[in-house]
Design brief:
This protein is an alpha/beta fold. The chain folds into two domains: 6-179, Flavin prenyltransferase-like (Rossmann fold, 3-Layer(aba) Sandwich); 189-401, CoaB-like (Rossmann fold), CATH 3.40.50.10300. It has 14 helices and 22 strands. It has helices at 19-29, 42-45, 48-55, 73-80, 91-98, 105-112, 125-129, 131-142, 168-179, 214-225, 253-264, 306-313, 329-340, 381-400; strands spanning 6-11, 33-38, 59-60, 83-89, 116-121, 146-148, 151-154, 160-164, 189-194, 199-202, 205-207, 229-234, 246-249, 269-272, 279-281, 300-302, 318-325, 344-349, 361-362, 365-367, 373-375, 379-380. The strands form six sheets. The protein has an eight-stranded mixed β-sheet, with helices on both faces. Strand 20 and strand 21 (373-375) form a beta hairpin. It binds cytidine-5'-triphosphate.
Amino acid sequence: MYQGKCVILGVTGGIAAYKALDVASGLRKKGIIIETVMTENATKFVTPLTFRSITNNPVSVDTFAEPKIWDIQHISLANKADLILVCPATANIVGKVANGIADDLLTTTIMATKAQVVFALAMNTNMYENPIFQSNVEKLRKLGYGFIEPVEGILACGASGKGRLAPVEQIIAETLIYLHRPKDLTNKRVLITAGATREAIDPVRYITNHSTGKMGYALAEMAKRRGADVILISGPTNLVPPPGVTVVKIKSAREMAEEVFRYFDQVDIVIKSAAVADYRPAVAVSHKIKKKDEDLIIELSRNPDILYELGKRKDKQVLVGFAAETDNLLANAQEKIKKKNLDFIVANDVLVPGAGFGYDTNIVKMITPDGSIEEYPLMSKEEVANKVLDKALKIYNSRYLE
Ligand code: CTP
């Protein structure tokens, strides 16, 4: 599947540079051609010769070096790339690209390419947290650049915190996801709900849950990358929406219901990954409730079950639900499929480490109305998103195209 694809591996000057060798080697095993471009600083950590031996290809450093065959090197590299992976990516390279600086071979190549560029970040925690760096990342994300976030751990400087390069296997897996991007959802409209809802008690307090929206945002990102027209209806979250997606921000379940119903007739696939509050305070008091000596009882009213309503209205749409459970996972999920007239449900046990709220990973089972169950191991939320989209598309195609 990846045979003959070309990845330009940009290596910048960080202590994690040696790990890029394992990334290069893992990608080569998939049949991918790797051409390495190193910054001057990177060559102080690992020699070009080491990358040349691992990749079996020449390694470039200097913009003005005499090429073996005459061409303008940064343009030819930029054109032949199916993907540019910068690994490790320092704060410096991100800052340069975000501000349009192209002063060496790697930055000029990035500037000249039309291929996807992905940065696997690695740096000191304080540099990572620096608002200047974070605003550079946000700017590039909005322009469609990809990021593989660093992980927590002991850093080269002895400090401990977020900044270590993500594990090599994860970088390889995410690179493959970026490379394998069939535009198989072109001409499809996909509606995704994400995050938690907030149900107001008074102007300063609300009821909510632990959902962060990561699963829904990963779904939106993957669907967009695969060519879909994406509508993301999102509860409050700090996540940056993927570029090119129509984002509708809501707070309460009732607001979410209104927006979902507004778009429902126009879409082909609906994926309800949001954790919708089932109840809201019966009365949202318009002033701040002052404390008294006695206990306070808040009466709750039922919120609409959005997915249940969609199941009743379902016409051509493929309807996908999520079920976050703590016990009786399969039985509860199966009941939800029937009750809500779903095409399938994505069930996860939120008590298992690595699955559910706040993690970048998930462990899911996909269950269909006929009772068949597909079980998946621990995967990144992006990988889970692709599996969900694969299945939804397959159902759509079998229903409408054959
Ligand atoms: N859902 C919804 N509207 C609600 C509650 C849930 O659309 N008011 C959707 C969720 O987005 C999810 C699915 O229904 O796709 C299952 O949600 P979940 O909270 O697991 O189940 P509930 O139906 O609320 O049942 P319970 O809380 O009893 O587990």
